[in-house]
């Protein structure tokens, strides 16, 4: 389906207005961090939820909420103060290939990160200067600096090796973007939305190809850059807002 550029922008803006509203939250993984009000709780809930956001959406929501419950619905407090006995409560947590040892390492690594000033936000503060690709790579190195099972690494794909890093880019959208509808949080005010890239999954990729926004057949980092460049022609200040339109068209309209 090929639409002329002006018509395509109008079409995507319209679909964005439909899906970027509070009713979107309830059935989306972003509903989990929306349970919280403090910055650190939101960041941690968002990061962990984004990490396990693949597969059936109802299962994602169920398991992400269960993980929050295992941390007594106080994720930041749990991260900062947990002991070995507390970690035993996470032994039963599994989401698809994300198992209990992955969960425990993620908690330990987040504690290491929040023991440094700025926590997660500080680690991504270089996006404006070095770009998302390099910033994710640097974050990944920091996150994996503790002794860890090799299995953990598959849950943090590296864009320098070509990975689309969909889940971390979704997390960044949640943290950086802010608009009047209040779906994304906009907590990280020192990072410009113009520097983000569009999270690329099966749905957004298929819709983008049908609309002529993406020609690359492989959903890798080069495809992420190509799609984002296309979206920047419609809104250079906030290209990833169209993630709502592409995802909504794919998931809810079976476009």
Would you list the SSEs in sequence order as H and E?
A: HHHHHHHHHHHH
Low-pLDDT ranges:
none
Could you estimate the helical fraction of the residues in percent?
40-55%
Class by alpha and beta content? mainly alpha
Specify the biggest β-sheet. Answer: none
What is the quaternary state of this protein?
Answer: single chain
Molecular shape: globular
Distance between the termini: 10 Å
- Which band does the percent of strand residues land in? under 5%
Brief write-up:
With 255 residues, the protein is mainly alpha-helical. It is 52% helix and 0% strand.
Structure, described:
The chain is mostly helical and 255 residues long. The protein has one domain. The chain contains twelve helices and no strands. Helix 2 runs antiparallel to helix 9. The mean pLDDT is 95.
Q: What brief labels describe this structure?
A:
0% strand, single chain, mainly alpha, 255 residues, 12 helices
Compile the SSE list and pairings.
Layout: H1 5-19, H2 39-51, H3 57-70, H4 75-81, H5 84-88, H6 100-114, H7 119-123, H8 127-143, H9 166-176, H10 202-210, H11 221-232, H12 242-251
Helix pairs in contact: 1-12, 2-9, 10-12
């Amino acid at each position: 389906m090929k639409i002329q550029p002006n018509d395509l922008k109008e079409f995507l803006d319209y679909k964005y207005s439909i899906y970027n509203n509070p009713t979107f939250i309830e059935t989306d993984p972003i509903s989990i961090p929306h349970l919280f009000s403090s910055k650190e709780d939101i960041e941690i809930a968002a990061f962990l939820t984004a990490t396990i956001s693949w597969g059936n959406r109802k299962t994602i929501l169920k398991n992400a909420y269960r993980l929050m419950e295992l941390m007594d619905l106080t994720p930041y407090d749990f991260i900062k103060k947990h002991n070995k006995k507390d970690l035993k409560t996470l032994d039963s947590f599994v989401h698809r290939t994300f198992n209990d040892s992955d969960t425990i390492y993620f908690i330990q690594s987040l504690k290491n990160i929040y023991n440094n000033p700025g926590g997660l936000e500080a680690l991504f503060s270089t996006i404006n200067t070095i770009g998302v690709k390099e910033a994710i790579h640097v974050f990944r190195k920091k996150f994996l600096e503790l002794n860890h099972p090799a299995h953990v690494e598959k849950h943090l794909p590296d864009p320098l090796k070509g990975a689309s890093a969909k889940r971390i880019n979704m997390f960044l959208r949640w943290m950086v973007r802010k608009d009047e509808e209040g779906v994304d949080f906009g907590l990280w005010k020192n990072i410009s939305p113009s520097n983000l890239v569009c999270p690329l999954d099966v749905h957004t990729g298929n819709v983008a190809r049908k609309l002529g926004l993406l020609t690359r057949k492989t959903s890798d980092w080069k495809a992420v850059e190509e799609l984002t460049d296309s979206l920047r022609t419609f809104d250079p200040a906030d290209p990833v807002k169209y993630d709502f339109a592409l995802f909504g068209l794919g998931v809810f309209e079976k476009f």
